[in-house]
């Protein structure tokens, strides 16, 4: 006999999010409700990471499973802990507390940022029509009668998939249908009035993370968000190793493409489930990404982006049918790529322009999006210069002895007071390592406290926090206090790695300023784009010359600019059409061929007292 | 050690066709050269049908195989007979005679007919360009540089498949490429200069036969032809049973669609092999068919064509990418459907208009395309009336006791002289039955010889050729002389079946004439369209009122008008654009709703002396 599923409801604390559904495991319900909950083993019961505490419940849960008896301690069981993948709420409702260690959230993605509000003017239009029934006195074919009711010209195209469904839908609906048009192409015919159901998604395909927002294109409202790791990291953390892998043989490119498409499909599924919308109602997608992600997603080899002169295959605004990209949305809907600026400066940078709107301001602004390759934009309504600074992975916690990504347990901010290191970790759990924003703070503090020189050398190896057995290292936290094995430390080599990275950034914006014909001090506004930017301590970023030293109130945390910029273009074809004009103002500067590059770079590496 | 294949050459008689290739069986060589040769067992050596005679040879053949020793008589072996599937020409060249019994040809498809010559103006244009190599001083993306060299606007689209190949092809070719454009869409980029290689195919999807012509779209020349049975006959000989089958469930429609697509792919493969052309160089396809074949091939249900008021889903000129129809040609090429006139009068009739050009003549012409449903067109440059006459399958030899299709052994013409029946069979072999053209002759002769009355009854059952044990039947040939078991005869019921069919035709053209406001005698020209028409004895057709009685020299055997008309549209976009204007002149007449239909039909069934 099939299991009877009853309607249940769970409140997940501390967020207070309520998820309703049919009887299922807590993990399933959490996933459906986009509640952050770890489940590394995919619910197989092997990782034991999804511990949750049942605070109260009205109704019934299943008995403890054998897996739970193995994975949970007696104390935990006494305190009402369960594994979310095993605990099933059979009826009624309950309140569940998710302890920090069970939250999948690394650092919460900052949704705070620039307002991406624009008047909705979607690319897909829907028209509700009623067609007279066919008869011997009107024997025109279905499509002809449809077109004539729509008053659209004979040249109006229709996709084959829509045409094959047309006769059935017209008759099933009693000749009362809603027609979806993309430009002068009929992409859907649906029974009844569905004019209110036009949804779209904006996607930021990052090298390490993919972010997806679902938008109601009638109201312009963002109705769901989801993000996932970019599984391509299996084939290399950095862009260069992915280019290498993809270029080796055609199958590899196909493999990387499928990974991205699958991830986007997973995210579409997630945002659609969150909001109870059918993926078939998603007619439009606009995506951004660096040039390599952009190419791989479209199935184009990134090989020639990887070798001088770093030429992309396509940089314009291009659109392709969703079905050609095997996306789980309306197959006749379109997928639009935001233009690229150059081989190493992708459409994420263009999204940054769309959202910061520096292209329409008189004052000169600087936009910095920090990553392994950091995109830097400088300009105003007259002209915009763009470059990519190869800042390396140290901002993402890589190539640093105790470095880690910005996930649970990472030290994200540091202060040194009276010789003591004070820090905060993500999720307030025991520290496991240090992430990018923590490194910025740490190096700035070490310099401010005169523990290191401007070139990153320890001044005095007898400092109580410096261990010298072997390579000298500054100890942030000792092993017995960490959630990890071993000390959390930083070495001169680590500091040097970081100085090279931040030097690259400074080189970028100083060369752009020079090219623009201004002093960095003439920059009126700085936008820190991307979620990393929002976690940076501004004072320390200025000390380290990551950004020019301007007034605090003129520095803007722009938030998730990439997906936000894509969303502007998604919501409005008017904004999409602007892109060409905006890009005419942009000039790409290839740093590596600049004569002053080496000189400026060497001068930018040390921490210096005289700013700019 | 792999067998060394040497270059060989075979002339097949009596056609005198020379096929060159590498050492292979004669059957393989014949198939490659599209030489008509039977091979029912597919070359397995079991059917023994592919007997051929080696007339002379320079070079060597393999020894007789054991299979040949079994299948061939001693006399045959002495006369140099071989089985084509066993005999392998190892080197040199030879001349081979194919006796009638080994020819697969049913009746030769008549290629004689109207001249389909038009000035080539293909839909696909190719442009050979040389692009400057990319460098740091020109970092525009590949596509942008391509477009700028082509001087085409930024809106020019490119298919995803072409874009993904672009970077590789540009570099492999040394930036020297040929671009294929379909309208303002880039559909191919090929290395070097391939401007001379633009091929297209025209296809006639008949209910029983599919015909395919390969055309060089630069010269306009037809370079290969192939045809195959429509395998859908498995699901019913007539259109109605295919509509029924396709409407039962969606999988059935898919099954019928695949059968047609597979057949077309087989024919594409065949014409491409004959002419040594890659299917990738076939960029354009134009097809015609009755409404049901048209819909099924596009994957659209024919259900509503089958029920009153017989409405097609689409009747306009529509085009779809070849890849959406899983065709084995250039996937980015387009497949264009010639418009339909109505539910029961398909694009084959439109092709008949294109090729007969009655739409541009002052005099009034009649076009008759005889089949299970016969399309009839009447008109001139002012107006054209069209109808479909449900003439039934007797013209195709069905529903007649000794009836058969027009294949080897069918009696195709008959004369009665001095009480003796004189006939000719297809391929001059022993008779197996009688096909449509034979039935026309036979009935006309029986009437002329006063053996039957005008209503098809035997006047005198004691006639020496009439057998009366059981149902009375006129004996054409007795069993001991036929290649079949049993006599070849015709009964009153058979004759009646035929009279109903021919009556339907006459009803059609008399109603059209009435609607047009003329007497049938005012028709100045009659075009007999389709390959069936070319085998009809004109005098007998006039006696039986299949066509109006006009002067012999004003009756035109129009030949394979359907595939020919499609070819006109294939060769010239100018002609394609004309279609809309031509169709504005056409008015569809639904015979079944005409008041005078029943009266006229009953009057049209008997054979009458007063013509028209």
Automatic annotation (TrEMBL), chains A, B:
Which top-rank group of organisms is this from?
Answer: Archaea
Q: Which residues form the 2Fe-2S ferredoxin-type domain?
A: 6-102
PROSITE patterns listed in its UniProt record: 2FE2S_FER_2
Stored InterPro entries: 2Fe-2S_ferredoxin-like_sf, 2Fe-2S_ferredoxin-type, Beta-grasp_dom_sf, Corrinoid_activation_enz, Raco-like_middle, Raco-like_middle_sf, RACo_C, RACo_linker
What molecular function terms (GO) are annotated for this protein? iron-sulfur cluster binding
- Which Gene3D superfamilies does the annotation name? 3.10.20.30, 3.10.20.880, Domain of unknown function (DUF4445)
**Record's CDD domains?**
fer2
- Name assigned to this protein: Ferredoxin
Q: Which organism is it from?
A: Methanoplanus limicola DSM 2279
Q: What is the lineage of its organism?
A: Archaea, Methanobacteriati, Methanobacteriota, Stenosarchaea group, Methanomicrobia
